[in-house]
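During the no-cost extension, the postdoctoral fellow (Dr. R.K.) reprocessed legacy sequence entries with the updated structure-token encoder. One reprocessed record is reproduced below for audit purposes.
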Amino acid sequence: QVHLVESGGGLVQTGGSLRLSCAASEAGFTLNAVGWYRQAPGEERELVAAITGFGSPYYADSVKGRFTISRDNGKNTIYLQMNSLKPDDTAMYYCVDSDTQMWGQGTQVTVSS
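Re-encoded structure tokens follow.
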């Protein structure tokens, strides 16, 4: 069964950077519009960024100017470049395919102060 796979999370210091990736587990499943969500313990899930099939981005106010979402259609992969990370960015990050509402298992991002 096809599912989404996130990668690239880890532990960084405040001000550091990470790049998350989101890809389908099997070839032949084309990602269209994709969103990146995050959820911290005890908090509601938050839409961080999204990208349409044509590459138009959306960003939450909390990450504007720091995060960049992009896509490589040749690799069928969506990226989330995260710069100037803050402790408030600490959360599990998930990608979701908007057409099918297929979610990945998540990748943990931890920003130390």
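The mean pLDDT is 95. Residues 2 and 25 are 6 Å apart (CA to CA). The remaining legacy entries will be reprocessed before the final report is submitted.
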